[in-house]
Each structure stands twice: as C-alpha cells, then as structure tokens.
Amino acid sequence: MSSQDIPEENLPAEQGHAHGVVDVADEQNPFADPGLPPHEHRIQDIDERAAKRSERTVAFLFTLSMLATVGFIVSYVAIPSDKSIFVFPIGHVSALNFALGLTLGTALFTIGAGAVHWARTLMSDVEVADERHPIEASPEVRAKVHADFKAGAKESALGRRKLIRNTMFGALALFPLSGVMLLRDLGPLPGTSLRHTLWSKGKLLVNMNTNEPLRASDVAVGSLTFAKPEGLEEHDEEFQNEIAKAALMIVRLQPDNIKDKRELEWSHEGIVAFSKICTHVGCPISLYEQQTHHVLCPCHQSTFDLSDGARVIFGPAGHALPQLRIGVNDEGYLEALGDFEEPVGPAFWERG
Asked: Is residue 296 a contact partner of residue 289, using CB atoms and an 8 Å limit?
C-alpha cells in the first residue's frame, strides 16, 4: 500500500517544511538549492495494524535480548569449564565459551536490531532541512533545541508505545548483569590457602615417575628425585593447582656436607626435601649439579645451594627454597612431618 492509495484526510500532517523547492541561481547564490524530494509515507504511518506489528517485533527483539542475558548468566554458573562439545563445522570447542559467546552476542545483537527496527518503522522519518547558523547559541536556538527535543520525544511514541518502552528498559537493565557476573572470577579471596599445601604430618612422599611411595633406600647419594603428596592423582580436578604448591625435589647428601643446622635437623640420613618451585616466577626447578649441590632454574638461571639451606647464590630469585621436614615411618617409607614453614613459590612474599 502506498500513500497514493490513502485518502488525503487519513495521511499524517506534514511537518511544516516545503519539499522540492528549487531556488534560482544568481550572482550572490551561484548554486541552486534542489530542496528535498516529496515525502513518502510508510505503511506504519497510515495503518495502525502495521504499526502494531512493528511494535510487537521490536518488543520481541528486546525480550529475546533479556532471555539471552539470562542464558548467559545460567551458562556461566551451570556449565563446567572443562566440558567440550562438537559444533559443526568448527569442531570440538569449550561448551562454556560457546554458550557465553552465543548468548552474549544474541543479547547485544537483538538490542541493536530492535532499536534499528524501531527507528526505521515507527519513529518519524520526515527529512528536515535546517539553515546554517552562527556557532553561538542564541536564546532562540536554545528554545528551538528544546522544542525539537520535545517533538522528537513525541514522535518516538515512547510514551504511547508502552510495550516497546517496558521491554527496552528490561533489556537494557538486564544486559549489564552479564558484566556483573564476570566479577565472580575476582573471588573468592584466597584467605590462607597460599600459606598451606597438601603436605601434613604422616603424608608419604610418592615418586612422581613411578607413583610409588619412596623408601629411604630408594634415594641414592647424589641423585635427584621428584615427589608429590600421597593421595594426589593427575586426574584430580585440582591437581595442577595443588602440585604447583606441593611439588618436591628429593636429594641425598652426605650429612657432613650439609652446612645449615636446620636443614640437617629436618633431613633424614642426609635426605633433604625442598620445594621444586622457584621463588622468582614459579618455574619448576629440574637441573641438579651433583658435585656442588647446586640446583638451577632453567627459566632465568636462579641458582640455589642445597647444602646450605637452598639459599640463593645467583640469579633474580629473592628467597631460598622452602624446606619440608621429613622422617621415616615404621615401614621405612619417607613421610612428611608437617607442612612447609613458609609459603611456597614467588610473588607471595611481596603480597602477603
């Protein structure tokens, strides 16, 4: 249906601007003003049923945005971070990342699509030419701006189209909750978790390679062995977090070669247990120099003397490696006699 098919009395009133006016060029104004083309009314301007359909479409898009925002929140809480799904043609992807991207994208897109559809079908589309004026705002200009604002507010039909207004406010109010939910990753607070590891009195030292408890007789003089706490398995959900604090390196020295008194007291027949985590940036230490009893961090070459309390003798590390006090149980297995006395790893010293 076009405006030519509608009786003149049913057409919306013009906005007080003449269309198609062409000024004649002269010496003072060498360029003619072509004016504006005649305004064509949209179907929504002349048929209230079409306007209602557009209103429902806009409301549907805003409502869909609200549902997508709720879906984002539910996905963030309910979907495990380690779950994967197959999505054609991408392949296997993280279920959580896919759900968050899909719902957040839908929420943003439908708010934008609803606003565009609202502007194109229901807001006034009458083109208005305004003459250029001085930059300073005169009282007349300010009055005109206020009048134009009121006219624009009236033409948007925000007060009359309550369904659009309410659903738009709902979509805009709910969407920021997606960002609020992301704040969950700032917590919970670590509390005292950085000060403690899985080591406790009576926990056996388990060989990282064989997954068997270590006997004192298994550790030869000059050898380097890596150990973990009894009960910690690689398939455990928190394995990486826990091993990053509890990983041990076991070295057997001649008791006469141990210079630090506390180190000797906390050892068993020259077997000493130190944290494997470098106190610089947390790299795993794995290089042992048998003759000097030095261990070297492969990342930044921090060097620690295991015969002298694992103190730093070279490199950027600022603190000695924490030592774990060990002993032997009745069956001859090496066991911890408590947890580390000081926090393991880097950064904590400056933070806590």
From this structure: yes
Q: Phi-psi bin for 241: left (phi > 0), alpha (psi -120 to 50), beta?
A: alpha
Token readout for 1 is 């249906």
User: Which residue positions in the chain have pLDDT lower than 50?
Assistant: 1-4, 6-7, 10, 15-22, 352
Distances (CA, A) of 230 to 200, 234, 246, 343: 10, 12, 11, 20
> Both tokens of residue 260?
């630090």
- CA 73 to each of CA 59, 77, 120, 181, 345: distance values in angstroms, whole numbers, following the listed order: 21, 6, 31, 7, 35
- The neighbouring-strand residues paired with 139 are none
Residues 6+ apart with CB under 8 A from 138: none
- Cα separation, 261 vs 186, in Å, equals 42
Identity of the residue numbered 75: S
For residue 57 the two structure tokens come to: 């479409």
pTM for the full predicted model:
0.50
Whole-angstrom Cα distance, residue 338 to residue 225? Answer: 20
Of 259, 260, 270, 275, nearest in space to 324 by CA: 275
Would you list the DSSP string of 298-327? TTT--EEETTTTTEEEESS--SPPPEE-EE
Type of residue at 87: V
Other C-beta atoms lying within 10 Å of the C-beta of residue 274:
23
For 163-207, the pLDDT digits (tens) are 988 999 999 999 998 888 888 777 777 677 777 889 999 999 999
Distance of alpha carbon 99 from alpha carbon 41, whole angstroms:
42
Tokens of 165: 């207004």
Name the token pair of 47: 């048929």
